[in-house]
Structure formats: C-alpha cells, structure tokens
Inverse folding.
C-alpha cells in the first residue's frame, strides 16, 4: 500500500515531467483528438519541461557566478529581470527545502485550479462582473509559479492551502485586470472580440485612463507619422537579449575589476581559464547566458501550446460568451509604431532608473531583460498612444520604465530571488500583494519558509 | 504534407494561439500540414523547410529572405480571416495538399 501511494503521489503526480504529460494527455482527449496525437503531445510536454529545467539550471548557475563576483567585490546584491527564470528560480528555492520537483508540481496544480477559478468567476459574471478568460498560457505558467512561491514563502503552508490561496489571488488578478481592458482593446483593434491578458494589464489600464489627460490622440497619433527603420533590430528577441547581457556583463566586469574577473575565470567561477582575453571572455559569458535563456524558452514552447489548446477548447465549450484574454502581442499588428515608441521610451526610463540606483547607492542592482522591457512598454504605449497620442505614450513609458526598476527592487528585497519578473504589474500590484502576504506572515509570527 | 510556420515577436504567445487556430483550420479544410511557432529572430532555422509563413504585416520586415509563401494579417487571432487567406494560399500554390 505504501509502495503504491509513494508511486502515485510522489513519483507520478509529484513529478512535473509526468504530471504535465498527464495533464496534456487529458487535454487532448477532452478535445476529442486521436489517442496517438495525445500520446505524442504528452511526451513532447515531458521533454519540454525537462529542457526548460536544463536551460534554467544553467542560466541560474551561470548568472549566479556573475552576481557572486559582484557581491564579493562591492557588497551589492544583484538580480536579473526576466519572466521565465523567476518561475524556475522560485521552484528551485522550494525544491531545496521540500524535495526535487515539488515547486513545479505545486505550480502545475495552481495553474489548473486558477484556470478553473477564472472560469467560475466568469460563469458567475452577473455577480463578479468578470467577463474575460485568461488564455495566455506562457504568462499563466510563470504567474502561477510566482504566486505559489509567494504564498509558501510567507505563510509556510502545505500543498493544498498553498495551491488554493495562490490560485485564488492569481485568478482574481487575471479576471479583474483583463476585464478592465475589454473596452479599450476593442477600440484599438477596431472591434475584435478579445482582450489583453498579460503582465502589464494594470498599467495598460492606467495608460488608457491617464493618456487623454496628457495629450491629444487626434493630433499626435504616432501610427499616422513616419518613423526611421534603423531601430528595428532591437525588436529581435534573441539579439536584444544578447545586447542587454553584453552591456550588463561589461559593466559588472568593470565594477569587479581585475581580481573579480580572474575569479570568474577560475574553477570556482566559470572554470574557463583559457579565455585570457577580456573581450573574448565577455563575449563568451554574454552569449552563454543568452543561449541558456533560449534553451529555457525552447523548453517552454514544447508544452505551452498544448496547454493553451486545452484551455482555449475548454473555455469555448463551457463559456461560449466569454471574452478571450490573449497575449499582448496579438494587438501589435494594429499599432506597430507604438510598439517601437514604447520600447525606446521604456528603455530610457529603465536606464534612468538604473543610474538612480547607482547614484543613491542602492544595495540591490538589476540587470534588465527583453521580455519585461519590450512587451510591457510596447503594450502600454499602444494604449497610451491610442487615447492620448505619442507624447502621452512617451511620458507614460519613461515613468513605467522607472517603476519597473524601483518596484522590482522592492520585490527582490522581499522575495530574495536572483531573478525577478520585472513586468509593470509585478512592480506595482504584485509588490503590494507580496507586502500583504509578508505582513500577514509576520503578524502571525510565521517564519519565512525559504 | 505542408509545413506551416507561425511567426510573432517571441514565439510564445500570439504565434502559439495562431498555431492552435491554424491546426484547426487545416483539419476543417482537409489540409494535411505540420504547424510550428517561432519568434522572427529565430525564423531562419525553420524557414529552410517551410512552405507557408503566417504572420503580421509589421513582422515581414524582420523575416530573412525565403521562398516560402507568406500570408500576413493584422489580426492574427481572427480565425475566419486567417482561414480565408490560408485556404486561398493553399489552393493557389499547393492544390495537391487540399482534399
């Protein structure tokens, strides 16, 4: 009996690579697909989650070396801003205490329960006013992972209460924020029946409400103006990631000096004594980190499509009248110039924020990431430009860049992770949520779980 | 068997939803196809054996040169519109692949 319980609970339903395969298999069957297709999808999901783990493990390990060198040289604690590694770093912290695979297992249960709660909230729309179902699977998995870690870290709860509490806050965030964006998204897309479901929804709403007070959308609509093409290369996700890594690593190497770089080359660091040339070593580190991120993303891509297909199918079947909450990039085709505008002014805001961190000798330094920088500011710029013109969009994105840096700094100081999500909502709404959980935890004298 | 590639900015969200819709469209119209999703920054590796690229007009500038047929639409998630364009493209260029 014990053997069977252990097999079922720990080795099958407690191991993310099998649990996810089972979830995907059930999803395919529920969509009335062929069994052969379901088996292929299930195995691919298994491979995907292990590939994700490999990319994440290498990334967190390698990036950690840079952060250690920085801390040894200056005492400054560093953290990277990127969505997916924040989820895997959270899982790593949970696994260290609860056992290998526990973090991701709890995270998958939160994903399923939060999705069901979202459906229930929409089903009860007469009372809840929530009309949108959040279907952006790639953002959902990350947000569920982070919620799981927040609840467990500050409340120290077991699996079932952690899953229920984390699911509820996530489902409420999804439902409320994506419903707020139904009206403006309809205006932007010229009547498409969808809404933005991503990780800067609250700031999109702020931009929608604030922009008309800052500018005139008729006179200053950037979509009707000409823009130079020369900045387009910044939209290449891989190249932009490399560029940010290159600049950040160069700064860190300059700050830690000759001894620090020597440590990085040593066996305690990257164990790459052969790269004696500074520039070659810098290139190797930056390209390695970018490659690690790419592997992580490639892993996510192998299973997230399968999950999205099931979520979309179930939602359409059970709630035909619900508004589909989709990835923010789905509206980029309607406002391509706002996208570039947001990227530029968001970057200005983030750079300004980083300079201020240095000027005020902040104990935490952040390495920006392409996902929070590009997707957040691009989307916020679309909302701001549509309702207030490009001047409003530029101003709001600079401020958002600053908020992303300072809000993330607060989050890192409370969460003690080496990666943070970095998106606008995770620098505002979620910082407040973390503070509330931290407050509740300390009110009841619960020790921090890890 | 056609190879169809859905392209967006990061290859994770929009192109993934598009991929789900395209798989359904192919099934409904008797088109035999393998559908993949990717970011425009990594499209080069996929394009070698891609027959049709589905994307949004503003992404066209980022795509590497390719012989694949390109179908671009502003609202990538409007299934009816994507269906009409895709079926037309298959009928014109790959008439043998549609039942």
């Amino acid at each position: 009996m014990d053997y069977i319980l252990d097999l079922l609970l720990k080795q099958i339903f407690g191991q993310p690579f099998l649990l996810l395969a089972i979830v995907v298999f059930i999803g395919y069957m529920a969509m009335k697909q062929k069994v052969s297709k379901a088996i292929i999808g299930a195995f691919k999901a298994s491979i995907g989650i292990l590939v994700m783990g490999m990319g994440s493990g290498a990334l967190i390990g390698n990036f950690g070396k840079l952060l250690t060198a920085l801390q040894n040289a200056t005492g400054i604690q560093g953290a990277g801003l990127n969505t997916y590694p924040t989820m895997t770093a959270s899982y790593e912290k949970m696994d260290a205490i609860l056992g290998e695979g526990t973090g991701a297992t709890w995270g998958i249960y939160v994903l399923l329960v939060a999705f069901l709660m979202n459906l229930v909230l929409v089903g009860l729309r007469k009372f809840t006013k929530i009309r949108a179902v959040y279907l952006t699977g790639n953002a959902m998995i990350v947000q569920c992972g982070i919620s799981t870690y927040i609840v467990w870290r500050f409340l120290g709860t077991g699996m079932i209460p952690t899953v229920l509490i984390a699911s509820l806050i996530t489902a409420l965030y999804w439902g409320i924020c994506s419903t707020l964006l139904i009206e403006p998204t309809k205006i932007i897309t010229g009547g498409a029946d969808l809404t933005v479901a991503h990780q800067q929804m609250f700031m999109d709403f702020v931009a929608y409400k604030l922009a008309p007070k800052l500018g005139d959308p008729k006179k200053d609509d950037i979509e009707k103006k000409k823009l130079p093409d020369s900045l387009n290369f910044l939209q290449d996700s891989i190249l932009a990631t490399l560029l940010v890594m290159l600049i950040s690593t160069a700064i860190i190497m300059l700050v830690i000096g000759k001894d620090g770089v020597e440590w990085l080359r040593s066996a305690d660091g990257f164990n790459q004594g052969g790269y004696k040339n500074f520039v070659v070593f810098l290139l190797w580190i930056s390209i390695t980190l970018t490659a690690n991120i790419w592997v992580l993303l490639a892993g996510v891509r192998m299973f997230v499509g399968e999950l999205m297909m099931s979520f979309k199918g179930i939602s359409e079947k059970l709630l035909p009248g619900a508004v589909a909450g989709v990835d923010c990039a789905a509206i980029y085709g309607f406002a391509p110039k706002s996208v570039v505008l947001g990227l530029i002014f968001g970057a200005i805001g983030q750079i300004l924020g980083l300079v201020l961190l240095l000027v005020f000798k902040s104990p935490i330094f952040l390495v920006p990431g392409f996902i929070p920088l590009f997707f957040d500011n691009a989307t916020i710029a679309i909302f701001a430009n549509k309702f207030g013109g490009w001047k409003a969009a530029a101003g709001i994105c600079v401020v958002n860049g600053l908020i992303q840096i300072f809000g993330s700094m607060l989050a890192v100081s409370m969460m003690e992770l080496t990666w943070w999500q970095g998106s606008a909502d995770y620098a505002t709404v979620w910082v407040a949520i973390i503070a509330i959980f931290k407050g509740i935890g300390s009110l009841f004298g619960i020790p921090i779980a890890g | 068997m056609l190879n169809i590639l859905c392209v967006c900015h990061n290859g994770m969200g929009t192109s993934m939803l598009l991929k789900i819709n395209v798989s359904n469209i192919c099934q409904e119209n008797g088109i035999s196809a393998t559908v993949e999703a990717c970011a425009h920054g990594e499209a080069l590796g996929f394009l070698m054996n891609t027959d049709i690229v589905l994307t949004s007009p503003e992404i066209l500038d980022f795509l590497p040169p390719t012989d694949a047929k390109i179908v671009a639409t502003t609202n990538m998630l409007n299934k009816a519109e994507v269906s009409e364009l895709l079926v037309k493209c298959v009928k014109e260029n790959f008439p043998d692949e549609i039942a």
Observations:
- Chain A has one domain: 2-442.
